[in-house]
Automatic annotation (TrEMBL):
<feature type="signal peptide">
    <location>
        <begin position="1"/>
        <end position="34"/>
    </location>
</feature>
<dbReference type="Pfam" id="PF00675">
    <property type="entry name" value="Peptidase_M16"/>
</dbReference>
<keyword id="KW-0482">Metalloprotease</keyword>
<feature type="domain" description="Peptidase M16 C-terminal">
    <location>
        <begin position="241"/>
        <end position="353"/>
    </location>
</feature>
<dbReference type="InterPro" id="IPR011765">
    <property type="entry name" value="Pept_M16_N"/>
</dbReference>
<feature type="domain" description="Peptidase M16 N-terminal">
    <location>
        <begin position="87"/>
        <end position="214"/>
    </location>
</feature>
<dbReference type="InterPro" id="IPR050361">
    <property type="entry name" value="MPP/UQCRC_Complex"/>
</dbReference>
<dbReference type="GO" id="GO:0006508">
    <property type="term" value="P:proteolysis"/>
</dbReference>
<dbReference type="InterPro" id="IPR011249">
    <property type="entry name" value="Metalloenz_LuxS/M16"/>
</dbReference>
<dbReference type="GO" id="GO:0046872">
    <property type="term" value="F:metal ion binding"/>
</dbReference>
<keyword id="KW-0378">Hydrolase</keyword>
<keyword id="KW-0645">Protease</keyword>
<comment type="similarity">
    <text>Belongs to the peptidase M16 family.</text>
</comment>
<dbReference type="Pfam" id="PF05193">
    <property type="entry name" value="Peptidase_M16_C"/>
</dbReference>
<keyword id="KW-0732">Signal</keyword>
<feature type="domain" description="Peptidase M16 C-terminal">
    <location>
        <begin position="710"/>
        <end position="887"/>
    </location>
</feature>
<protein>
    <submittedName>
        <fullName>Insulinase family protein</fullName>
    </submittedName>
</protein>
Length: 978
């Protein structure tokens, strides 16, 4: 049964993980299983194929889905779903991916995906995108596709559905899949785009990923069938060969159509029959390739030397993949396997928190691409890779030697059960797009789907079988294998090379039995925050279903009691002044708060105690730094709201200052520091915000010296006064019908002592980068064929003119659309050019910019600046046409309409509304503002802001290259082309 496990609480570490660890994680796509052969009914009837997903399974059927098979073998699954209202999500899955390619066809499945999205034989090239834009579809998010080793999936989320645009969209999509335009011209254009995608992904991370994949899956197709293909195979691709690949694998009996949305499932099924029913196969069905099995004779160890890459280890226990029918017993095994992993991950995380030999280590067991059953340990050593490997192997050895306690098992089972109950509570609000994606994933991995209630019921029965002895048996199964392989990524060669890895792996593991001991923790141990606060005023917010509640201590709450998400309550506490609390030119520790501030504890409890305190409950705490406030946020439920608020208020009233998280953060930043200039994209990710704000310290990344100098004392000295400063605004949105939220507020935030405002530094304006005629040059240490170019213009900011802010969003969308057409669709010079408008509300009259950029080959940098300048100049001189405006404003308006049905949207827009009435007014006017933008407005904004004399540009080039060198490359390429 398809199951999405709860997320782990370690997302902060992903920004520090070295390439090999990330690459290894990316390898493990959701498991895939061979699909059952389709039945061959004689009529189009949902009843005839109603059980094709559940063939041979005893999993309780999710009756919300209706299934069917067309006479030609096309299978489908359709359902009604009204989230968001008016949207229909369509997925077309073809059972073909990169492992279906021959050596000469590497990359063809992915190239074909690109060609398919250009249009069909019946639609002019590129016109499909424009038609869908007119329907309100955003390219890249609402319409997209993906190719994996085992499947190719086409995705369309159609907003504001009408019978006409749904019919037209089904017609377009069916035509694209059945008869894509595969001409030599189209192949040449998309070859350039795919080669740009390949170039942009090239570098140490891709090399490590490819080498790791080849080593782990030696002798199997997965080992050398990356979906992107190779430069040689793509260069050799011709229309006839790609057409032959399409004709071989794009057949009705290999297609699954999934539709979930705001409509009648019977109508969805009728449209599927209308546009796919007459699809016929050419010739007999091809025999799928043998994906191979793990080769026990292949080398065990591989050391990958990559300069500037931190140490990283991947330990993989690899078993042959077995096809299984998805049954209740199979589901029991999957859940117990996940529990066994969770038990080990808890112990590994505890060792890392306590200052062990590794920064982070996790284990994960997956069924990979119908090729292997793999348990993989991913380890980031602190310094000594041998010690880190030994420690992780020791924890695993303990798991397969000594049964876990029932208390340990219950702790992890509580987390899974809480997640499933949360999904059940939120089932009414599950977006149709996610339901469609889940169905596609279930088909790909050969599993069924169950209703949220069915999943809760099954797990309750399954967890009863999770005894210590049962978990020991499961652990032995997933941590043993006929093939074990290890990969070490290292910046310098290690003494002994691969032999040293083999020796380390051959050493008997020393059992690490220091399991997490249960602590006797209870919310009653938390000291009272203070005397319950007094409400001094309440008032409705005009135009909104919300009220403003003010307490005597100055805390002001914005509360919305609604049933948008039954059983869910969202909380956001905004305090202090965020980025405004520090000066533009003063050193700061804003960058340390995201992880260390939350992990450093509360009152009598450290992070381990808090984890135990909140086990199995919907209580959490996230932290972020905004322009005008610091934010604590959480997603909870009515029964947990009182304790949720108590914990968050205690973080402000009685913070704890454990040193270990600060040190872990420091080491993590230093571990990943050399990745900051490994690629053009890494250079931009780290530096662009600082450059755009004229090196403002609030948005400039810390250098190595600042990171090295971080101490627990300095961390506390920076954050302690900020946690204690006012003002406080709290938002509580959700299902509050069963709770006394006023009393909860009075007992928590309302009980805090009055808070003084931290004296704001002078200069609360944000500068923009100084104009340059010649682009600023920055360098990366990656591949010589990689570069990036950005150009930007200052705009404005604040709440004074929200209509212009939305007009600039549309201007950026138009700019992006034109840049896409010229740089990608016409010239194949870029995979994903981007234009974006940033209009912050935290600094009145400043901080805004419109930025345009792309990853490129060095030879195309000058071309990018020329195209960007041409587009900007044209937008200044000529008003846009009505169709172009509608195609770009419509998707933005649709995104707003969809988002406005949820609490997240309104909570974001209403930040600061308790103190500034302009916030609510701006929130309520968005739809009207977007709809009122005219071609004259777009031209006026272009004339006001796209001023060459204010423009700033940067080019990211390979180390040692100049703009003149890049121009010479362009000239040479042009001459070669002639």
């Amino acid at each position: 049964m398809f199951y999405s496990p709860p997320p782990t609480p370690r997302s902060f570490l992903r920004s520090f993980l070295p390439a090999s660890v990330i690459a290894a994680a990316m390898l493990l796509a959701p498991s895939a299983a061979a699909q059952p052969a389709p039945a061959q009914p004689t009529a189009v009837d949902a009843g005839l194929g109603a059980d094709w997903l559940y063939a041979g399974s005893d999993i309780p059927r999710d009756t919300a889905w209706q299934f069917g098979i067309l006479p030609n073998g096309v299978r489908y699954a359709v359902r009604n779903n009204g989230v968001p209202p008016g949207q229909v999500s369509i997925r077309v899955r073809m059972d073909v991916g990169s492992m279906f390619e021959t050596d000469a066809q590497r990359g063809f499945a992915h190239l074909l995906e690109h060609l398919t999205f250009r249009g069909s034989e019946h639609i002019p090239d590129g016109e499909t995108k424009r038609i869908w834009q007119r329907f309100g579809v955003t390219f890249g998010s609402d319409s997209n596709a993906q190719t994996t080793p085992t499947q190719t999936v086409y995705q369309l989320d159609l907003p504001s559905v009408t019978p006409a645009n749904l019919d037209e969209s089904m017609k377009l999509l069916a035509g694209m899949v059945r008869e894509p335009r595969i001409s030599e011209a189209a192949v040449a254009a998309e070859r350039g785009v795919v080669l740009a995608e390949l170039r942009e992904s090239d570098g140490p991370q891709k090399r490590i990923a490819d080498l790791t994949t080849a080593h782990l899956f030696a002798g199997q197709l997965l080992g050398d069938r990356s979906p992107i293909g190779t430069t040689a195979s793509l260069a050799a691709a011709r229309a006839g060969a790609v057409q032959a690949f399409h004709d071989r694998w794009y057949r009705p009996d290999r297609a699954v159509i999934v539709i979930s949305g705001d409509g009648d499932p019977a109508e969805f099924a009728r449209l599927i029959a209308k546009y796919y029913g007459d699809w016929r196969s050419d010739g007999p069905a091809p025999t799928p390739p043998d994906f191979g099995k793990p080769d026990p004779k292949a080398p065990v160890a591989k050391a990958i030397v990559e300069a500037n890459q931190p140490l990283a280890l991947t330990l993989a226990m690899i078993r042959p993949w077995k096809k299984r029918i998805d049954t209740v017993e199979n589901t029991r095994r999957l859940y117990l396997e996940f529990l066994a992993q969770a038990l080990v991950n808890r112990r590994l995380e505890n060792r890392a928190r306590a200052g062990g030999s590794f920064l982070v280590a996790t284990v994960e067991q997956q069924y990979v691409s119908r090729s292997a059953d793999v348990t993989m340990a991913q380890i980031v050593p602190l310094s000594d890779w041998k010690a880190a490997l030994a420690d992780v192997r020791g924890v695993i050895a303990d798991a397969v030697t000594t049964p876990p306690s029932q208390a340990d098992i219950d702790r992890e089972a509580n987390e899974i059960q809480a997640f499933l109950v949360k999904e059940l509570d939120n089932a009414r609000n599950e977006p149709g797009a996610r339901l469609a994606d889940d169905m596609v994933r279930a088909v790909d991995i050969g599993e069924t789907v169950a209703s949220p209630q069915g999943q809760v019921d099954m797990f309750k029965a399954i967890r009863a079988s999770a005894t210590p002895q049962a978990m020991l048996a499961i652990s032995k199964a997933i941590f043993s294998a006929p093939v074990t392989r290890v990969v070490l990524t290292t910046p310098t060669a290690i003494p002994g090379g691969d032999g040293a890895l083999i020796a380390a792996l051959a050493a008997p593991p020393k059992i690490q039995g220091d399991r997490l001991s249960a602590a006797n923790v209870d919310f009653k141990q938390l000291p009272a925050i203070g005397k319950p606060g007094t409400i001094v005023s309440t008032a409705p917010i005009p135009g909104l279903r919300a009220e403003r509640v003010e307490f005597a201590n100055g805390v002001i709450a914005l509360v919305s009691n609604n049933q948008v998400e039954p059983g869910k309550v969202r909380v956001k506490i905004r305090f202090g002044t965020g980025n405004r609390s520090v000066a533009a030119d003063a050193p700061n520790l804003l960058w340390t708060g995201d992880y260390a501030l939350v992990a450093s504890g509360i009152g009598p409890w450290g992070q381990n105690e808090i984890d135990q305190l909140t086990n199995g409950r919907q209580i959490q705490m996230n932290f972020s730094v905004e322009d005008d406030a610091f934010e604590l946020s959480a997603e909870s439920k009515p029964a947990d709201l009182a304790d949720q608020m108590k914990l968050m208020a205690a973080k402000l009233a009685m913070p704890r200052w454990d040193a270990a998280p600060v040190e872990r953060l420091r080491v993590g930043y230093l571990t990943g520091y050399d990745l900051n200039d490994a690629t053009p994209n890494a250079v931009l990710d780290r530096n662009l915000q600082g450059w755009l704000t004229d090196d403002d310290a609030r948005w400039s990344a810390p250098d190595k010296a600042a990171i090295s100098a971080l101490t627990p004392a300095a961390f506390r000295a920076f954050w302690e006064p900020r946690l204690a400063s006012g003002p406080i605004e709290v938002q509580i949105f959700g299902d509050l019908s069963t709770v006394d939220y006023r009393q909860i507020l009075a007992d928590t935030l309302g009980a805090l002592p009055p808070r003084t405002l931290l004296a704001p530094p002078s200069g609360q304006k944000v500068a923009f980068a100084k104009h340059n005629r010649t682009p600023m040059i920055a360098y990366h240490k990656g591949e010589q064929g990689q570069a990036a170019a950005m150009t930007a213009w200052p705009t404005s900011g604040g709440l004074g003119n929200p209509r212009d802010a939305h007009g600039l969003e549309i201007l950026a969308a138009i700019f992006n659309d034109r840049l896409f057409d010229r740089l990608r669709a016409e010239q194949g010079a870029s995979y994903g050019p981007v234009a974006d408008s940033h209009w912050p509300t935290g600094f009145d009259g400043s901080g805004g910019y419109l930025v345009v950029g792309s990853l490129l080959a060095p030879k195309d940098v000058g071309r990018f600046y020329g195209i960007a300048s041409d587009i900007a100049a044209d937008l200044v001189v000529h008003p846009v046409g009505a169709d172009e405006l509608a195609r770009n404003a419509g998707p933005i308006r649709e995104q707003v309409e969809r988002a406005s049905t949820g609490n997240v949207y309104w909570m974001f827009l209403l930040e600061g509304a308790t103190r500034d009435p302009r916030v609510a007014a701006a929130a309520l006017s968005i739809g009207r503002d977007i709809s009122s933008i005219t071609p004259a407005d777009i031209q006026r904004l272009a004339q006001e802001y796209l001023v060459p004399a204010h423009q700033w540009s940067v080019a990211i080039l390979p180390k040692g290259m100049t703009l003149a060198d890049a121009a010479a490359l362009d000239k040479a390429a042009a001459q070669g082309g002639r």
